[in-house]
TrEMBL record:
Organism: Terasakiispira papahanaumokuakeensis
A single GO BP: protein transport
Record key words, sorted: Cell membrane, Membrane, Protein transport, Transmembrane, Transmembrane helix, Transport
Transcription regulation found in the keyword field: no
Protein name according to UniProt: Biopolymer transporter ExbD
Length: 137
């Protein structure tokens, strides 16, 4: 009689417990959210020139874009040329150890690029890079 009772219990309790699996999925979700690095876009699309020696940069980055019309963008907002140094300095201060990368459009004038670089250096930013697309035309 006791055997029948135990066999009846086994049939009633033949369910899969999903709680441990949900716990693992939740922990993985938290892990991926915490370890994800977010990229701050400049606010415009820039057609970068191609270079065969272009290298991917890692780490935290502050992106500054120069359009083909000479407009300067950073962090989704258009900046006046005189305010570029101060604004980018604030962005770098918020992200210690970040690199400043200038994305100049292929058709942007060299004068605009030099003016932006000059303003950044005057604001105390010595380390900056120019963005290029990998490959050669």
């Amino acid at each position: 009689m006791r055997r029948r009772h135990l066999q009846g219990q086994d049939q009633d309790e033949a369910e899969v417990n999903l709680t441990p699996m949900l716990d693992v999925v939740f922990i993985m979700l938290i892990f991926f959210i915490v370890t994800t690095s977010f990229v701050n876009e400049t606010g415009i699309d820039v057609s970068r020139p191609q270079a065969s020696t272009a290298q991917a940069q890692t780490g935290s980055q502050v992106l500054v874009a120069i359009s083909d019309k000479g407009e300067v963008w950073a962090d989704g907002q258009r900046l006046a040329l005189g305010a570029v140094g101060a604004e980018v300095s604030r962005m770098v201060a918020r992200q210690p150890g970040s690199q400043v990368i200038i994305q100049a459009d292929e058709k942007a004038s060299t004068g605009d690029l030099v003016a932006v670089m000059d303003r950044l250096r005057a604001a105390g930013i010595e380390q900056m890079s120019l963005a290029a697309a990998p490959g050669m035309k």
